[in-house]
Specification:
The chain contains nine helices and no strands. The protein is an all-alpha fold and about 180 residues long. It has a domain of about 110 residues. α2 crosses α3. About 40% of the residues are buried.
Length: about 180
């Protein structure tokens, strides 16, 4: 499933809290969403650009406005920097998917006929874990549905909010707002 894990409004903090497997998957999946979204709003189709999951809520959100697209790009850039940090990639090394995003002509991206200039909150691609604030929804989702993936490399570790968002079995409805 394609997803961006909005564990904080600050993309660097969100990336630092990602489990190891989501650092890499965020770079991969969000890069594909970014290139698909720009093509949906008129960026020239090129063979070397990814085009996938066009109807996914995250892709649709990214294609809704230039501000949304830039927000997802900032998240993906943060995940890419985290990828380099956790696995000791040099400053000139690029994940192939991120290199594809970096190959986009940003002047062309800025000049596209975006449906809106207004930013909106990202979709909550969190299954049954919903909340008024999207960060809360993602924290509930992470603390309860992604525990089996909890593994952080280097000096990264479990986010300090995990316990507060962990819901006892059978009390999920109490977490929703």
């Amino acid at each position: 499933m394609v997803n961006a894990f909005w564990l904080d409004r600050d993309p660097d903090r969100a990336a630092a809290w990602l489990v190891d497997s989501h650092v890499t998957s965020s770079v991969l999946e969000c890069s594909m969403v970014l290139t698909t979204a720009v093509q949906l709003v008129g960026y020239p189709r090129e063979d070397d650009l990814y085009f996938t999951h066009a109807d996914h809520p995250l892709t649709q959100w990214a294609a809704e406005s230039r501000a949304n697209w830039k927000r997802l790009r900032a998240y993906t850039d943060a995940a890419h920097r985290e990828w380099r940090y956790r696995w000791d990639h040099g400053p000139d090394e690029r994940h192939g998917c991120w290199a594809t995003v970096e190959s986009l002509d940003l002047d062309v991206v800025d000049g596209l006929d975006w449906p809106s200039e207004t930013a909106s909150d990202p979709p909550q691609v969190t299954g049954e874990w919903e909340a008024e604030e999207y960060v809360d929804a993602y924290r509930y989702y992470y603390a309860n549905e992604k525990r089996h993936l909890f593994e952080w490399s280097k000096d990264r570790g479990e986010p300090p909010w995990i316990a507060a968002y962990t819901v006892e079995s059978g009390t999920h409805d109490d977490a929703e707002t």
